[in-house]
Design goal:
With 423 residues, the chain is an alpha/beta fold. The chain contains 11 helices and 24 strands. Strands 1-2-3-4-5-6-7-11 form an 8-stranded parallel β-barrel, surrounded by 5 helices. Strands 17-18-19-16-24-13-14-23 form an 8-stranded antiparallel β-sheet, with no helix packed on it. A two-stranded antiparallel sheet has the order 8-9. The longest helix has 20 residues, at 260-279. The radius of gyration is 23 Å and the shape is globular. It comes from Nitratiruptor tergarcus DSM 16512. InterPro entries: Peptidase_U32 (IPR001539), RNA/ubiquinone_mod_enzymes (IPR051454).
Length: 423
């Protein structure tokens, strides 16, 4: 039986390694403004991206290159050069958005498989057939599509792979077709530089054009005026339903510009969900508990399993501030002997250890601290905080590596539950 692929975001080389450490089968990322995440593209350069592809292949994993921007005429020669450079690194696929770029890729690098970006907004089998005939071998469906529509596409095109987003930020507009950022700040969403204007708070007015009178529209108490702020997608509880359909080949997590911790925990949660499904012991509460530790805007299950007109509660009107049940306190370095502080830590604090997939932890105790297991979780308690010197407490502004009492796996995180949050 072919197992579904777990596809995680790789905003830079470290996040790529973290995603694989926590169980991703493949990652996606890109270099430069040819991708739809300019900030993320700047975190990779040609050398580090090539290193990431080589690293992935040593693990038997895959890397898909985002070349999903919408080029102007003046950029086509640069696009062609970029495609040629990317093809030389032997990635596992190109992610593209337009028929013209599909043709360009077929001309320059016919041996590289093509995946169609969600920006192409495929919602039906007619469009899917057109792109399949052009040479596309996987379609990343529009976020607005329903599971029944995916089943119909697969029925008509059984050899076409289908990929869906299961987690991450949702766009206020139709799969990214938004001009608000362009109008207000000159930053073009479909050129990779969205300013996320939909996350802002707005004050609304009504004008009488005959008299010039301007009325402020009053906020409904308790609702708020973040009128375009969409909640984040979270389909972890529906993985069984999705996989039971038998039509989805890849589950994709959004978030190349999000934190190292986000890359780790979202990958961990969906890896657990997928593995549990195949074991016949699916437990949504386990995955949701992990996902709720990340910063988010509230969660929604989007439109895959419910039609848009049936949905309510997909917007977070009161705030765009992220939430999470836990605070990330530290991130263990690649040497496994030190960590970098992400939030205030004091002597005597007990911190939960979150380690990569299949990591083997062991208890230890010495003058620096104790690592121990309790209630099925692993914990670290520091007796001493030793960086460049000894501290009673250390803060995130301190960039000196802090000694661990004994070695932990690279890319392990230390976290603490926020007292006023509940699971």
């Amino acid at each position: 039986m072919k197992r579904v692929e777990l596809l995680s975001p790789a905003g830079n080389l470290k996040k790529l390694k973290i995603a694989f450490a926590y169980g991703a089968d493949a990652v996606y990322g890109g270099v430069s403004h040819y991708s739809l995440r300019i900030r993320s593209g700047k975190e990779f350069d040609m050398e580090s991206f090539k290193e990431g592809i080589e690293y992935a292949h040593t693990l038997g994993k895959k890397v898909y290159v985002t070349i999903n921007g919408f080029p102007f005429n003046s950029q086509i020669k640069l696009f062609a050069k970029h495609i040629e450079s990317m093809a030389a690194m032997e990635p596992d696929a190109f992610i593209v958005s337009t028929p013209g770029v599909i043709k360009l890729c077929k001309d320059i690098a016919p041996h590289i498989p093509l995946h169609l970006s969600t920006q192409a907004n495929v919602m039906n089998y007619l469009d899917a057939e057109v792109y399949y005939d052009l040479g596309v071998r996987r379609i990343i469906a529009a976020r607005e599509i329903g599971l029944k529509d995916l089943e119909e596409i697969k029925k008509r095109l059984p050899d076409l792979e289908l990929e869906i987003f299961v987690h991450g930020s949702m766009c206020f507009a139709y799969s990214g077709r938004c001009l608000i950022s362009s109008v207000q700040s000159g930053r073009v969403p479909n050129r990779g530089s969205c300013a996320n204007d939909c996350r802002f708070e707005y004050t609304l007015y009504a004008e009488n054009p005959e008299t010039g009178t301007l009325f402020k529209l009053e906020e409904v108490e308790g609702e708020g005026t973040y009128i375009m702020n969409a909640k984040d997608l979270n389909l972890a509880s529906h993985i069984k339903e999705i996989l039971d359909s038998g039509v989805v080949d890849s589950l994709k997590i959004e978030g190349r510009t999000k934190s190292d911790y986000y890359a780790a925990i979202t990958t961990k949660a969906y890896r657990m969900a997928i593995d549990d499904y195949y074991k016949g012991q699916f437990e949504p509460s386990r995955y949701q508990a992990e996902l709720h530790t990340t910063k988010h805007r509230g969660f929604t299950d989007g439109y895959l399993v419910s039609r848009p007109y049936e949905k309510s509660g997909t917007q977070k009107l009161d705030s765009s501030i992220s939430e999470g049940t836990h605070q990330v306190k530290a991130e263990v370095l690649e040497d496994g002997l030190h960590f970098l502080t992400k939030d205030k830590i004091c002597q005597g604090d007990e911190l939960e250890i979150v380690a990569p997939k299949d990591a083997k932890l062991r208890a230890c105790s010495n003058e620096i601290g104790v690592i121990f297991e309790r209630d099925g979780k692993w914990w670290l308690k520091l007796n001493k905080i030793i960086a460049n010197k000894e501290y009673e407490c250390i803060h995130s502004g301190n960039i000196n590596p802090v000694k661990l009492p004994c070695q932990l796996p690279p890319y392990t995180f230390l976290r603490k539950k926020i007292a006023d949050k509940v699971d």
